[in-house]
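FORM 7B: Structural annotation worksheet

SECTION A. Query
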Amino acid sequence: MDRTLVMAASAPIPVGHRVEVAEQLDVESGTSAVVAIVDLETGVRYQRAEEPTAQLSIWQGSVLATTITTTADGPRTAMKIDVVRAAAAEGALDADEALRGADAAADAARAEAYRWGGSDRPPPEEPVRIW
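SECTION B. Predicted structure
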């Protein structure tokens, strides 16, 4: 499912980048407003100056298109985002964490193997010949 978000700021997030969107939900009127967008590829956070005053909805997606327009009121960014289900996003983050942990474990094992590479071991004993 695609969603189009409009933000009163210049947020040049490239197509294909994963983003995390925080929206403030107004239950009475049934509307929502973007509070912050985090580019998960670069770590850059774009947010409004004022603090959220209502319940937040946080979801993730992939940027399909970004348009930045200069208006009389200042810059405006419109983004079309392919929404990723929350469960799928959590699974992707868990997989990323697992891969980072596996890489760290492999690096530690490699360093330990280099450290114990045999240069400080005593030479093997000669077998005893009976004949």
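SECTION C. Observations
The CA atoms of residues 46 and 88 lie 24 Å apart. DSSP finds one helix and six strands in the chain.

SECTION D. Sign-off
Analyst initials: ____
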